[in-house]
């Protein structure tokens, strides 16, 4: 099964003890996640590479 979704990277304002800044934010939600094996409560691993994010349901 291949599902392609298009989304934009948003920003989130984060404050720490020492500073505050905007950081990238990606939101994903929808029945297509469940259909692909990502049911509510499923643990997953996330691998970050240059220009690519790989999410694997465990």
Automatic annotation (TrEMBL):
One of its GO terms (biological process) is RNA metabolic process. One of its GO terms (cellular component) is cytoplasm. One of its GO terms (molecular function) is hydrolase activity, acting on ester bonds. It comes from the Bacteria. Residues 5-56 form the Toxin SymE-like domain. InterPro entries: Toxin_SymE-like (IPR014944). This is Toxin SymE-like domain-containing protein. It comes from Emticicia aquatilis.
